[in-house]
Design brief:
By secondary structure, the protein is mainly α. It is built from eight helices and three strands; from the N terminus they run H-E-E-H-H-H-H-H-H-H-E.
């Protein structure tokens, strides 16, 4: 199934999809506060373990993920509240995982892995001026971009260390699934074996990730401030 680093990259994609599954081009763009003198130009979205997250920060992080998942054009769509809520979930989960690792002085990001992530992000753009223009539009710079990408790398490594082994799918499990669904599997077991095991592992990893995020957030101090960031009551 490939190298451990390759598996981490694939599972990282699962995590990203979990939190930004729906990106809508419709709706009012609430992602970039604007204003003149005497007006509010940014807003607090949430307080995460004592750290303030502003709307401009959240908007930028959402657009970074959109570029990673869908390309440059996807980063220019309006950010409706559903998209911002998904981005906020990612921001909270990553920050809590990294904060826990910081307390233990663990899971430092490998420089080469961060550089590779930055390089891949750069390659989404036509050239360096296009990248810099994107950053300027969103009041960010290369240092801020690198910090966002590094946090993502660390969060993925931390999560992977906790659930990757439990997400493994045995031969017996894969074959049993095939036996139960072979009428719709499109071929003999040996022909679909690798793809089936990969799919089942991704599904299990996604479920375990949700459970781990819930566990991490259960004891954390997270307060939503923006209306879309507040949890709905029963």
């Amino acid at each position: 199934m490939g190298s451990p680093r390759g598996r981490r990259a694939k599972m990282g994609g699962v995590v990203g999809c979990l939190v930004l599954m729906s990106v809508s081009a419709a709706g009012q763009d609430t992602g970039r506060p604007t204003g003149a003198e005497g007006q509010v130009i940014d807003r607090v979205v949430a307080v995460i373990a004592g750290q303030v997250l502003t709307l401009s920060e959240l908007s930028f992080e959402a657009r970074v993920v959109l570029v990673q998942r869908g390309g440059v054009r996807a980063a220019e769509v309006s950010l409706d509240e559903e998209t911002l809520r998904g981005a906020l979930d990612l921001a909270i989960n990553q920050r809590l995982l990294v904060a826990g690792a910081d307390r233990l002085q663990a899971f430092a990001a490998e420089r080469s892995e961060v550089e590779a992530r930055v390089k891949a992000f750069r390659e989404r753009f036509e050239d360096e001026p296009a990248l810099l223009a994107f950053l300027t539009r969103h009041d960010a710079d290369l240092e801020q971009l690198t910090a966002v990408l590094e946090r993502g790398v660390r969060a993925e490594r931390i999560l992977d260390s906790r659930i990757r082994l439990r997400a493994q799918v045995s031969e017996a499990e894969a074959r049993r699934y095939w036996e139960e669904h072979k009428a719709t599997m499109g071929g003999p077991y040996e022909g679909v074996r690798e793809a089936l095991k990969e799919r089942l592992m991704r599904e299990r990893y996604g479920q375990l990730a949700k459970e781990e995020f819930a566990r991490v957030r259960a004891d954390a101090r997270v307060r939503g401030v923006a209306p879309f960031a507040r949890e709905e009551g029963p």
